[in-house]
Amino acid sequence: MRHTATIQALQKLLQDRLTTQPEILTAHSKDLSWHPSHLPDAVCYPISNQEIAAIVAICNANQTPLIPYGTGTSLEGHILPVLGGITLNLSKMNHILGFNEIDRDCTVQAGVTKFQLNKFLQDKGLFFAAGPGIDASIGGMMATGASGANAVMYGTVKDNVRGLKVVTADGKIISTRKRVQKSSAGYDLTQLFVGSEGTLGIITEVTVVLHPLPKFVAIAVVSFTSIEEAIEAAIQLNQSDLPLAMLELMDEAIINAINQYAQTDYPVQPTLFLELHSQKENLQVFYETIQRIVQQHQSTQMRWATETAAKEELFKARYDAIYAVKALDPEAVVWATDVTVPISRLAEIILKTKKALVELPLFGSLFGHVGDGNFHTILLCNFEDAQAMKRVKDLNHQMVLWALEMEGTCTGEHGIGYGKKEYLQMEFGESGIEIMNKIKKALDPNGIMNPKKIF
Amino acid sequence: MRHTATIQALQKLLQDRLTTQPEILTAHSKDLSWHPSHLPDAVCYPISNQEIAAIVAICNANQTPLIPYGTGTSLEGHILPVLGGITLNLSKMNHILGFNEIDRDCTVQAGVTKFQLNKFLQDKGLFFAAGPGIDASIGGMMATGASGANAVMYGTVKDNVRGLKVVTADGKIISTRKRVQKSSAGYDLTQLFVGSEGTLGIITEVTVVLHPLPKFVAIAVVSFTSIEEAIEAAIQLNQSDLPLAMLELMDEAIINAINQYAQTDYPVQPTLFLELHSQKENLQVFYETIQRIVQQHQSTQMRWATETAAKEELFKARYDAIYAVKALDPEAVVWATDVTVPISRLAEIILKTKKALVELPLFGSLFGHVGDGNFHTILLCNFEDAQAMKRVKDLNHQMVLWALEMEGTCTGEHGIGYGKKEYLQMEFGESGIEIMNKIKKALDPNGIMNPKKIF
Known about the structure:
2 copies of one chain form a homodimer. The first copy, chain A, is built from 14 helices and 18 strands. Chain A is α+β, with helices and mostly antiparallel strands and about 450 residues long. Among the domains of chain A are: about 95-210, Uridine Diphospho-n-acetylenolpyruvylglucosamine Reductase, domain 3, CATH 3.30.465; about 215-325, Alpha-Beta Plaits (2-Layer Sandwich); about 330-415, Alpha-Beta Plaits, CATH 3.30.70.2740. Chains A and B meet through strand 9, helix 7 and helix 14 of A and strand 9, helix 7 and helix 14 of B.
């Protein structure tokens, strides 16, 4: 067994909240990505900041890798223990510590999930709007720098955090900022730790920003004859005064999968899903604005819902998308990737990508949070087909190159993790990476914090 | 002469764009704050990123301090050459490098000022909304982590930046992020350099976010019988659905100064200044909402303007405030300070501060960007009156302590600079400061970048 001294010391500290049971190790060896699994040597379930500080100190003294783990839903291998070590499962750190109605913020332990938080908030007229559609942990979202479909109105997790508590690599507990709307006091440690993917410290508490629940919500699903027209319509919708809380593009491949999976009858065409949030009863005006814009772009159908049941039916399709694709071939491995470009280049990169996708000898689809220039491809892969896999990897590579040429980024919301390290190098160049590396070495000189990620 | 080798090498590089003329050195020895002046040994006027990289390399090789300088409008001594050295005046770096209408962004050299940028944008339907009311440089605002009165709607400079070009302390030019709306690629170097006050590198280019110009604007000026009622009304206004682009509180001391300075006739009472920005013609509805709320809080008068001339007249008072206070005693030194607390604690700290202000043996006033929990005091001081100055310093100290006790920050938008270093220590504690120090040492091992600031 590796790291015996560490595990013995941790066992003394945590007792039965440390395990080396094979099935538990296996459950922590993989995320939602296509990256191959790696086993940790032990999994810990801490219950307090002090305990995490003690764990970090033990790992640091023994130079044992430490990998923070929320819900295991990362998409680029962030939580894989590629060098073994200790996985720090934060699921027992799931308490809501403070709620401030007037200040519209809430302080939670890192293991609190998005759905858990919003359930807590449901009778308070407020909600946490950022992050992905799945039930990830708040700490994990922050560590990833996640975003999600509502970012077009409410921003990414970076825009929805007041401050963090972090256990640093030398085992100290720090607060990155006070519970205020703005501050210009010192370096912005909050935003340094957000998106640092566990490589600089362990995020243990998060103070998030809350938004008022919208009083009026409407959903529109609009079909188009071509992806060009759908994107042009999306850009125009985005620059109108509509209160867009979501503006998603799905290609006909995903729509077809949804129709099969959910017995829906959407036209098998490029489709925009819109969600509008308003505090005022003026949805009819919005309906007319949307209709006017989409008709200029040869829309073929527009479905509209303002009643809860009808909205849910329309949106089920949106949330089912990933399961619908997966259901096409339950044996296949899902390969999801994302890039972001300036909105003005979005049509160009999506068209190039779409052309490449249809030439692949496997299922390839794309969908996008087109309101902010971010889009994803979802492929169904068979890793045993080496020739096809080479083409998948080439496409992934090509998409990033296109994005970088267009002043875009290699990842808009999935992060670098284990899978996009070479692209970070391309994006920032040697000098930019050197600055990041200097910060990493300064804050984690022994390299114990989630090693082999980002760099 | 100090730093002779540096100055000789820089002279060779810059020729007549380096000066040691006493009057120029004096002009760079002071900002807008009360802090005593310090002369630089030379002032440089670089014209390109490459030139700045060469200057940094020379200063680094000779361990000569380097102080970036925008418009000299900092409020905590940020640009004071407290150890001498070279002041880098960025006023010749004043070109607009790129404008993207669809992406709503603009890339500018650091020396471009806010007014210059907005003049460039005036026929394009877009504007740069963040930052203070004075004509500071974009680079300086970013370095300070500035904010300003419109932050309540448009956010601070932190929220209005896509990416930076920075010359690091080892003389390399890096881009902190691509020109995208969101990215989760690597550490957030953008937000690390924003607010770093020139202590980690020189910001040379900024890609800023632009907002559509509002189609309809209205101004309201509302007087109240007490500061408590004004604050309660402000909190309620802020939590309504009003499109507030500004929500400012001024106490009766400032109103009195304005009346004298600008021959206005505002009731000498605590007063709220509101600015509403809307894309739709529904100002009458907003008027009624404001009136309903302020009447619940014993407002005594409400002036309202939607026509340009009338708006300008009302707002002249707002922008004249600092000059009006200064005019009360042209010999006095203005002492301005700011803190931010959670909105829920704002009334409490403002009342405590107000009570302390009226007991001072000198002019003391307060005003606040109350929409985000931030407020300022403005005092008129005579540094020769040692007893009075002790009381001013005690009040400044006490305000910060109150803010910190209330989960607030020692500065919301002025920054730490030279004046608030001890409070940064209090706010972050030893462990937090240690993390910042590690970053500073990693990125600027020779300590040449704006030394003695922040820490």
